[in-house]
Amino acid sequence: MTDRLRPEAPDPQDFLALDATLSAEETDIRDAVRAFADRELRPHIADWFEAGTLPDPRGLAKAFGDLGVLGMHLQGHGCAGTNAVAYGIACRELEAVDSGLRSFVSVQGSLAMFAIHRFGSEEQKSTWLARMAAGEAIGCFGLTEPDSGSDPGSMRTRARRDGSDWVLDGTKMWITNGSVADVAVVWAATDEGVRGFVVPTDTPGFTANTVHRKLSLRASITSELVLEGVRLPADAVLPHSAGLGSPLSCLNEARFGIVWGAAGAARACYAAALDYATTREQFGGPIAGFQLTQRKLADMVLDVNQAGLTALRIGRLKDAGDCHRNHISLGKFGNVAAAQRVASSARSVHGANGITLEYPVMRHMVNLETVATYEGTEEIHALSIGQAVTGVSAFR
Question: Which positions fall inside the Acyl-CoA oxidase/dehydrogenase middle domain (predicted)?
Fold first, then answer.
């Protein structure tokens, strides 16, 4: 009997060799998005974050469109039609740069475009989807309100019929891309229940106000939408939307991107900490040689790889048609918490340098505070998981 060859040592950047399980197409998408991120995004992201904005959102939208990541998991109308894992990989590579960049793509593709694709008429699809996939039109998604976050059923935005028209009044808050959008998918209560509306942002009565002085997700445009007597034709309603389940299904699509994105943020913080620890010298040697530093790195490796496994498994379930919304709740709940732990520990490895924008860890650390809150707070996802395993709802 011949001796078995000794396996190669694990790759510090992919300890469990998860990317070795990707298909050729998934690997190509990873490489393309990663190369784009390294070339076009990473060199500028610290400046964008410090400035608190995206200096050229339309140029960025066009670049994302050319890359093919806007609505990439949707079929037809100019969309790439990739599988869920490929979309997740794109989200991972973008959030490894910054959560705000993944949010841009996620809101465009998994909220605004998905809503039109799933619930829209053929005319609405033909009017908007190809342009949005190309980055020629920017979309936003108006569900959250100043007094209605985790409980969207309490929304105050109303749509009433006036002859054959609809008239919308209300306010939406924390809307990514709102003040640069060409179209808003707005959810409103009607006498028939919650319905979605396709609202061109140049419609009279529609105003978008940019939210300033943010301490998190600064490389992202966040807005308040104000609708005052916004009059829309009858065909502005998403004809297949019915009830609160419609916007919640859109949020579930976007949360899937967060499951992967958080894994990317965690990976970026770990990689920065590993690089810093092996090059920073104190007491006559690299700090990577200290036991306490190695324990921090070991904990990071565990969190990064478990987050990657979770994302990949949920992605495969989604592609097989077996992904329940509670699977995605589990993924967001676990992966965001893991990324927060990694970011915090990576910041400590960097010492005082970790609080500067010369290194990515503090930027990721504060961004993840927002990621933990939006599209379902960690508390809401914990209760969703609790309900799934006990059969008892603790929401009311």
Answer: 140-230
Tell me the pLDDT tens digit for each residue of 275-309. Answer: 999 999 999 999 999 999 999 999 999 999 999 99
Structure tokens at 277: 């620890």
Supply 58's token pair.
């339309």
Q: In the chain, how many domains are there?
A: 3
280 lies in the same domain as 367? yes
Q: Find out whether 230 and 121 touch, Cβ atoms under 8 Å.
A: no
Residue after which a domain boundary falls, among 133, 156, 174: 133
Share of the chain above pLDDT 70, in %: 99
DSSP-derived letter for residue 37 is: I
Q: Give the CATH number of the domain where residue 94 resides.
A: 1.10.540.10
Query: Which amino acid, 322?
Result: D
Structure tokens at 203: 């419609």
pLDDT digits (tens, 9 = 90+) for 73-103: 999 999 999 999 999 999 999 999 999 999 9
Residue 240 near residue 93, CB atoms below 8 Å: no
Residue 125 three-state SS = helix
Distance of alpha carbon 98 from alpha carbon 82, whole angstroms: 23
Q: Which of 253, 375, 378, 379 is catalytic?
A: 375
What pLDDT is stored for residue 4 in this prediction? 66
Give the DSSP H/E element, type plus range, for residue 79: strand 79-80
Three-state secondary structure call for residue 173? strand
Is 369 an active-site residue? no
Q: How far apart are CA 384 and CA 333, in angstroms?
A: 10
Same structural domain, 220 and 259: no
Q: At what angle do helices 361-371 and 99-106 cross, to 10 degrees?
A: 40
Q: What share of the chain is helix, strand, coil (3-state, %, to 5)?
A: 55, 15, 30
pLDDT of residue 1: 47
* Residue type (1 letter), 364: H
> In 3-state terms, what secondary structure has residue 195?
strand
- Residue 266 is assigned to a structural domain of this protein: yes
Beta pairing class for 139-142 and 183-190 = parallel
Q: Are 228 and 266 within one domain?
A: no
The answer to whether the beta carbons of residues 106 and 258 sit under 8 Å apart is: yes
* Percent of the chain whose predicted confidence (pLDDT) is above 90: 92
pLDDT tens per residue, range 145-192:
998 877 788 899 999 999 999 999 999 999 999 999 999 999 999 998
Task: State the burial class of residue 390 (Cβ atoms within 10 Å of its Cβ: 0-12, 13-18, 19+).
Answer: exposed
